[in-house]
Each structure stands twice: as structure tokens, then as C-alpha cells.
TrEMBL record:
It comes from the Eukaryota. The gene is Immp1l. Heterodimer of 2 subunits, IMMPL1 and IMMPL2. Coiled coil: none annotated. NCBIfam families: sigpep_I_bact. GO terms for biological process: protein processing involved in protein targeting to mitochondrion; signal peptide processing. Its EC number is 3.4.21.-. It is found in: Mitochondrion inner membrane. The active site is at S40, K83. The keyword Membrane applies. This is Mitochondrial inner membrane protease subunit. The keyword DNA repair does not apply. It is an enzyme of class 3 (hydrolase). One of its GO terms (cellular component) is mitochondrial inner membrane peptidase complex.
């Protein structure tokens, strides 16, 4: 009797560990569902919108200008942020705020990306903390899940003029 209960318990623990490993790999390498908070990506992503983030792009270095990514915050490694990729390594980017009279530009260093929120007036992004290492990217947002009336792929950046093609 005791052996039978012990056997079933160990089998249950074995299955739990196996399925836990499968779930971890799925969320780490394939993707997951993310709830976004804050005003920095408005109007593209509103506060409390739910999106699907895929993680394969970051592993295969397929992140492109215009993609919206989930990134470990350079200011607080315990939190994630959601921003749009404005520049990749070697790109010339505008580092000043839209309201600045004199515009300043810089080049994105190797192994980094330049990130900005779509709501330029209310976003803490690369204009504040500089270029972000590529290794901090956690995933790329593919489409919006919630609210249902906005279900589908995300719209283009309202700040397309900030992409420089020099």
C-alpha cells in the first residue's frame, strides 16, 4: 500500500516537472500573452491592452525598424517595457525631443537598438536612457488580443517621420 502511494506520488511529481519544463520552454522561446500598461505606446497600444509577444525573432536577430518589442527596462531590470524600434546598430537616429528647436542626431552602437514610445510627449525611452543592448529584448509583439474590437495586427507608427534612412 505504502509503495503504491509512493509510486503514484513520484510519477505525479515526474509529470509535473516534465510539463513545467515544456511550459517554461514554450514561454521562453516561443512566446506568450502580455498585458501592457502605461501611456507611452498610445494610440497604438492603450493601457491594459493584451497582446501576443513572440520570442523567436530575438533569437534569430530578426528585429526590424518599426517592430514593437518587449524589453527588460534599462532603469529597472525587474520590469519589462514596451517600445517601438526606431533604429538598429549603425543607424542614424534623432536623439532630441520633438519640441526641441535644435535637433541632435547620433548613431546606434553595435549590439544596440534605439527605442521610443509612440506617445513621444509621455514616454521614457532611449531619448532618456540611450541605446538599449539587443540582449535586453524579450520578444516582438505580433498582434493585439484584447479589446476584441481592436483584435489583429498593430498599426504603423504614428511617428514614421522619426525613422531616418541615411
Amino acid at each position: 500500500m505504502f509503495r503504491n502511494v509512493l509510486g503514484k506520488t513520484l510519477r505525479f511529481l515526474g509529470y509535473t516537472v516534465q510539463y513545467g519544463c515544456i511550459a517554461h520552454c514554450a514561454f521562453e522561446y516561443l512566446g506568450g500573452i502580455v498585458m501592457c500598461s502605461g501611456p507611452s505606446m498610445e494610440p497604438t497600444i492603450q493601457n491594459s491592452d493584451v497582446v501576443f509577444s513572440e520570442n523567436l525573432s530575438r533569437h534569430f536577430y530578426c528585429i526590424r525598424k518599426g517592430d514593437i518589442v518587449i524589453v527588460k527596462s534599462p532603469n529597472d531590470p525587474k520590469s519589462n517595457i514596451c517600445k517601438r524600434v526606431i533604429g538598429l546598430e549603425g543607424d542614424k537616429v534623432c536623439t532630441s525631443n520633438p519640441s526641441d528647436f535644435l535637433k541632435s542626431h547620433s548613431y546606434v552602437p553595435k549590439g544596440h537598438v534605439w527605442l521610443e514610445g509612440d506617445n513621444l510627449r509621455n514616454s521614457t525611452d532611449s531619448r532618456c536612457y540611450g541605446p538599449v543592448p539587443y540582449g535586453l529584448i524579450r520578444g516582438r509583439i505580433c498582434f493585439k488580443i484584447w479589446p476584441l474590437n481592436d483584435f489583429g495586427f498593430l498599426r504603423a507608427s504614428p511617428n514614421g517621420h522619426r525613422f531616418l534612412d541615411d
